[in-house]
C-alpha cells in the first residue's frame, strides 16, 4: 500500500506499526511515520509509534517522537524505558524512570521490569532491592516471575545466593521454568552445586524433558569435576542430548 501511494487510515497505520514492533522492521516503521505526518498528524498513533521505534532499537527516533507528546502516558514511558534497557543504555533508562516519577506518573509492572534490568546490569544491588520492595510497599503492584528473573540475575551476578534463596523461598507467586533456568545459569557461573541441584529439581518437575536444564546441570557438575554425578544425571533420560 505504501509503494502504491494508497492512503492509510489510522487503523491500518496502527496495525502496521504493531507489526513493525513484532518483527523489528525499522524501514517500514519510518515509512509509516512519514505517512502519518503526511496524513495530518500523529493523533492516537503517537504512542504506538514510540513503541514501534523502541522495539526496532531506534531509540533516537523513539525519543524524538516521545518528546513531541503533550502528555506522555505509562505506555509511552514504558516503551522508551524498555527500549533503552534493551539496547544496554541503562543509565538513560534509570534517568527516564526518575523523570517519569517527577512528572507525577506512577510506575507499573513493565517499567519496574526495565528498571530492575538496568540495575542488574549496572551492579546497583541496593537500589534494585529498594525498587523491588517498593513495588508492593509503595505502589501495591504484584511482583511477577519476570521481576524475580531480574532479581535472580542481579543477586546471581553478585554471588549473593543466601539472599537469593531466601527471596525465592518466600515469593508469593508460582515460579515458572524461566526462573529456574536463570538460577541454573547463575549457579553455573559461580559453581554452586547445591543450589543448582535444587533449581534443576524444580525445573525438571515443571518439565521433565527440558533439555536446557540437563545441559546446565551437567555443566555445573563438569566444572566441579563431579563426573559421576553427570552419569547419574542422564541415567534414564536417553532422549536428552548430553552436552558438557
UniProtKB/TrEMBL annotation:
One of its GO terms (molecular function) is RNA binding. Gene3D superfamilies: Tetratricopeptide repeat domain (1.25.40.10). This is Pentatricopeptide repeat-containing protein. GO terms for biological process: RNA modification; system development. InterPro entries: E_motif (IPR046848), PPR_At4g14850-like_plant (IPR046960), PPR_rpt (IPR002885), TPR-like_helical_dom_sf (IPR011990). PANTHER family: DYW DOMAIN-CONTAINING PROTEIN, PENTATRICOPEPTIDE REPEAT-CONTAINING PROTEIN. PPR repeats lie at residues 73-107, 108-142. Keywords: Repeat. Pfam families: E_motif, PPR, PPR_2. The lineage of its organism: Eukaryota, Viridiplantae, Streptophyta, Embryophyta, Tracheophyta. The keyword Repeat applies.
Amino acid at each position: 500500500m505504501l509503494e502504491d501511494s494508497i492512503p492509510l487510515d489510522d487503523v491500518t497505520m496502527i496495525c502496521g506499526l504493531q507489526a513493525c514492533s513484532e518483527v523489528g522492521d525499522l524501514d517500514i516503521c519510518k515509512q509509516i511515520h512519514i505517512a502519518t505526518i503526511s496524513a495530518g498528524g500523529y493523533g492516537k498513533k503517537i504512542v504506538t509509534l514510540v513503541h514501534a521505534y523502541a522495539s526496532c532499537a531506534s531509540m533516537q527516533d523513539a525519543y524524538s517522537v516521545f518528546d513531541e507528546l503533550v502528555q506522555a502516558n505509562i505506555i509511552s514511558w514504558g516503551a522508551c524505558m524498555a527500549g533503552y534497557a534493551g539496547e544496554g543504555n541503562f543509565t538513560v533508562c534509570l534517568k527516564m524512570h526518575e523523570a517519569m516519577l517527577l512528572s507525577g506518573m506512577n510506575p507499573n509492572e513493565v517499567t519496574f521490569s526495565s528498571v530492575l534490568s538496568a540495575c542488574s546490569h549496572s551492579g546497583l544491588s541496593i537500589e534494585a532491592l529498594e525498587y523491588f520492595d517498593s513495588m508492593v510497599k509503595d505502589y501495591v503492584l504484584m511482583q511477577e516471575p519476570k521481576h524475580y528473573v531480574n532479581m535472580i540475575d542481579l543477586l546471581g551476578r553478585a554471588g549473593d545466593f543466601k539472599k537469593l534463596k531466601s527471596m525465592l523461598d518466600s515469593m508469593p507467586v508460582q515460579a515458572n521454568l524461566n526462573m529456574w533456568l536463570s538460577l541454573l545459569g547463575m549457579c553455573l557461573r559461580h559453581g554452586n552445586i547445591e543450589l543448582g541441584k535444587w533449581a534443576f529439581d524444580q525445573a525438571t518437575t515443571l518439565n521433565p524433558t527440558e533439555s536446557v536444564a540437563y545441559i546446565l546441570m551437567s555443566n555445573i557438575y563438569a566444572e566441579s569435576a563431579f563426573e559421576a554425578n553427570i552419569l547419574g544425571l542422564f541415567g534414564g533420560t536417553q532422549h536428552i542430548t548430553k552436552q558438557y
